[in-house]
Design brief:
Layout (H helix, E strand, L loop, with lengths): L26 H6 L7 E5 L3 E6 L7 E7 L2 E11 L12 E8 L21 E3 L46 E9 L2 E8 L2
Parallel strand pairs: 1-3
Antiparallel strand pairs: 2-8, 3-4, 4-5, 5-6, 7-8
Length: 191
């Protein structure tokens, strides 16, 4: 899932230069290893406005966008800043992880449908829509992967909030903006 995660290759950090500065573990990893990490996953299951995400390096606040009637698939959103374990990221913004609990692992990718539904258990929804991680064209940079003010993550974007099976969720993350070091955004569950 890229150098943003502290598993395997990224235990040497986002710039692959030092084992003393590993990438900060993803919210999914932290939630599964709760014996060693704290997590503050806040479920969002309906329309919300003015949601605030402080930098993950300072707090453990992560939003979990749930899909009605599908507890096995969701998105995790956190705010990445160039500080702490993430000081070598070379980019800042909201990082969005797509998690599908029913998939066993990240080794057997399904073919992508070019809307972001890669088939992995956990995948990064890169804001540039190029799917370089799925196509194994990673260039050890986070540029184009983090979501910035003015961008929208929705059923109409690429990548999208469409489920792995291709069905629309109607979830829209929009009005992304900055407030100091925090990232603010709105979520709408389109019916």
């Amino acid at each position: 899932v890229g150098s943003e995660m502290c598993i395997r290759d990224s235990s040497w950090g986002v710039n692959s230069q030092s084992p003393w500065l590993p990438a900060f573990a993803t919210p999914y990893t932290r939630s599964k290893l709760s014996r060693f990490f704290t997590t503050n996953l806040i479920d969002i299951n309906g329309t919300e406005t003015n949601l605030s995400l402080p930098p993950i390096s300072r707090t453990d606040k992560t939003y979990k966008l749930t899909i009605p009637d599908n507890p096995n698939e969701y998105w995790l959103l956190e705010n990445k800043k160039e500080e702490g374990f993430d000081r070598n990221l070379n980019d800042e913004g909201i990082i969005i992880w797509h998690v599908v609990e029913s998939v066993a692992n990240n080794r057997n990718e399904y073919s992508s449908n070019d809307r972001g539904e890669s088939g992995y258990k956990m995948s990064l929804e890169a804001s540039d829509g190029l799917f370089n991680l799925e196509r194994k064209k990673s260039n050890h940079t986070t540029r184009g992967r983090l979501w910035k003010p003015g961008q929208e993550f929705s059923p109409y974007s690429s990548p999208s909030t469409v489920m792995q099976n291709g069905n629309s969720t109607g979830i829209k993350v929009y009005n992304i903006r900055e407030s100091g070091d925090d990232m603010l955004f709105d979520v709408e569950y389109i019916t």
